[in-house]
């Protein structure tokens, strides 16, 4: 399997985690802060959905060889604030998880047909060189960070995890 396909498969695997692990939380636990002053699993998962949407709307179409994109400094707080508000706007746990699954699937479907050249072409974000493979690997690390936060929180609430 090529590197880009294994990266895409790993990126896509978040949907399995959401359906198999995150769905185990009760509504009460799902909407409870993981620590004082920190987000809830609902906000974290909504945050992942929001960034997948950002990737679709503001990044993928512009990632071509030599493209020069601006960084996220002015966008991060806005996207995160909106994601947190979305999590508390009346949606249920199932709705938040399912919409995040659907958003991730949209990103994956958009990336699937891309050829090796598109995965390896260099583009720039604030003059920092990247390729799509390294960019998606960074997003996988971001997913892993948040999955671990939620798994620790679930464990602290006595929810047994079967992490295969």
From TrEMBL:
Pfam family, any one: DinB_2
InterPro entries (alphabetical): DinB-like, DinB/YfiT-like
SUPFAM superfamilies: DinB/YfiT-like putative metalloenzymes
DinB-like domain boundaries: 21-150
Protein name: DinB-like domain-containing protein
Species the sequence originates in: Guptibacillus hwajinpoensis
Phylogenetic placement of the source organism: Bacteria, Bacillati, Bacillota, Bacilli, Bacillales
């Amino acid at each position: 399997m090529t590197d880009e396909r294994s990266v895409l498969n790993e990126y896509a695997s978040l949907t399995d985690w959401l359906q198999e692990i995150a769905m185990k939380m009760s509504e009460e636990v799902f909407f409870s802060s993981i620590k004082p002053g920190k987000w809830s699993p609902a906000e974290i998962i909504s945050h992942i959905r929001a960034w997948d949407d950002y990737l679709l709307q503001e990044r993928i179409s512009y990632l071509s060889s030599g493209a020069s994109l601006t960084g996220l400094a002015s966008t991060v707080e806005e996207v995160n604030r909106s994601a947190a508000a979305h999590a508390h706007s009346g949606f249920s746990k199932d709705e938040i998880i399912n919409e995040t699954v659907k958003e991730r699937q949209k990103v994956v479907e958009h990336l699937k047909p891309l050829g090796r050249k598109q995965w390896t072409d260099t583009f720039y974000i604030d003059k920092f060189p990247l390729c799509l493979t390294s960019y998606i690997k960074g997003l996988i690390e971001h997913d892993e960070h948040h999955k671990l936060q939620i798994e620790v929180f679930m464990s602290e609430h006595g929810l047994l995890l079967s992490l295969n």
